[in-house]
Amino acid sequence: MWNEKTRPLVAAGKLVVLGVVQEQHAERAKLYQQWKQFDFPIAQDAVTSLGLAVVPVPVLIDEHGYLMSTRPRINEIAKLVTRPTKSPEKPAPKLNRDHMSPAWLTANAAPNSGASSLVIGDAYLSKGSLESIRHAVLHYTAGLKLAEAQQNEVMKGLALFRLGVAYRNLFDLAKENDESPDDFTKAVRFWTLALETNPNQYIWRRRIQQYGPRQIKPYPFYDWFDQAKQEITSRGETPVNLKIPLSGSEVAQPSKTFETVAKEEENPDPSGKIDRDDEYIINIHATVVPQKIAPGETVRAHLRFVPNTGYWNNEAGEMMVWINESDSGIRSRRRLVHSKAKLPSSGEPRSLEFEFKTNLDSAGELVIKGYALYYVCKSEDGECLYRRQDFSIPVRIQIEK
After folding, report:
1. Which residues of the chain have pLDDT under 70?
2. Between the CA atoms of 159, 161, 165 and 170, what dihedral angle is there, to the nearest 10 degrees?
């Protein structure tokens, strides 16, 4: 609506539109922009450096760089932008041309300043390389320590959320750069701690809900994805490619009730006869979201399977996961299947998800247990095996006092 209403003003040279999005993954906003045919640039603010707690927030700035209005109504825009403005007595401050240079920021940083550490970290994060993100983590950690020492809860929250963003970036680079897939767990932990410093920060809350169970979702985050790709393709265009595929939690519809798969499925290896993957040809990592829940609440478990010393054998069969029955709660489904790739062998990480609703009398830390069955080869031309690997997923129950 805003795009359509402001387009005549843009065409007449009366208005310049810029967008800022608080996305973890910028290409998703690019796809939405392509789908809706937005013709204005959009910048990414993954770490909420603008200080916003909710969105959207329209802001109107005059030609001199001064704020005219915050949250203007759509029917007020034309009147506001055509109203004459006076030249200010003092020109608006301008950013230094090197304001996103880590070297310049470091040289001009205030000593013992948590804010300076975060700004330098932001500069490193924006570069997007593995090395620069590691530098960002170091600076965010330094900012966090200063905030804790100074008992600055606001700065502490900002540092914690940024650390979550940085570790999620490292997780996304894992398949190509051999980073720890546990970085996603670290990201969720830091986001959780950040939200605890400011429960009213809804952008931070949404980041957790994005990967969480359906019961805590305010809306489906990316249910528009398939429709967008279809309509863009029908226009003869090539849709923006998502570097990081959408997870099941990101397209799941909200639900007030906990749903389970009604189909009865048999345990494929009830006696544990299938040989174990003692060589850890495949590494299994698990992240639960949220990381802290009350008794009776639900978590979404994200399982990630990363080839360590071998490859998937896609000619033999599909990878399967079995979730054991538990006295501590109910699983949404007991059997998960990952469709095999088209190539005879492949080395990509694989992901599966399920939800687990805890009992009302749960307390402390419970453990969800299960196992994975998969066909793997020790090398592309080497011995191919059928293996089982057991896993345990801890879930922390927090009882409010």
Report:
1. 175-179, 380, 399-401
2. 60
Say if residue 218 is preceded by a cis peptide, omega within 30 of 0: no
Within a 10 A sphere around the Cβ of 166, how many other Cβ atoms? 30
pLDDT at 173: 87
Amino acid at 195: L
Q: Which residues pair with 346 in a beta bridge?
A: 312
Q: Is 3 helix (H, G, I), strand (E, B) or coil?
A: helix
Q: Where does the chain hold its CATH 2.60.40.10 domain(s)? A: 260-397
pLDDT at 62: 87
Give dist(CA 360, CA 358) in Å, integer: 7
* Domain 102-210, CATH: 1.25.40.10
Residue 8 region by backbone torsions, left for phi larger than 0, else alpha for psi between -120 and 50, else beta:
alpha
pTM value > 0.85: yes
Q: What is residue 200's predicted lDDT score, i.e. its pLDDT?
A: 96
Tell me what pLDDT residue 229 has.
96
**Would you tell me which CATH number, out of the four given (3.30.70.100, 2.60.40.10, 2.30.30.50, 1.10.10.10), belongs to the domain 260-397?**
2.60.40.10
| Cis peptide leading into residue 268 (ω within 30°) | no
Q: Cα separations (Å) of 242 from 45, 225, 245, 378?
A: 18, 10, 6, 30
So what's the pLDDT on residue 190? 98
- The pLDDT, as a whole number, for residue 175 is 58
Q: What does the buried/exposed string (b/e) look like for 171-208 if buried means 16 or more CB atoms within 10 Å of the residue's CB?
A: bbbbbeeebebbbbbbbbbbbbbbbebbeebbbbbbbb
Question: Residue 101 corresponds to which tokens in the numbers above?
Answer: 């240079």
- How many angstroms separate the CA atoms of 24 and 124, rounded? 16
Residue 163 tokens, joined: 């650390």
Give me the half-sphere count of Cα atoms (radius 13 Å) on the Cβ side of residue 34.
Answer: 23
User: According to the model, what pLDDT value does residue 297 have?
Assistant: 95
Q: Which residues pair with 350 in a beta bridge?
A: 305
Start and end residues for every CATH 1.25.40.10 domain found in the chain: 102-210
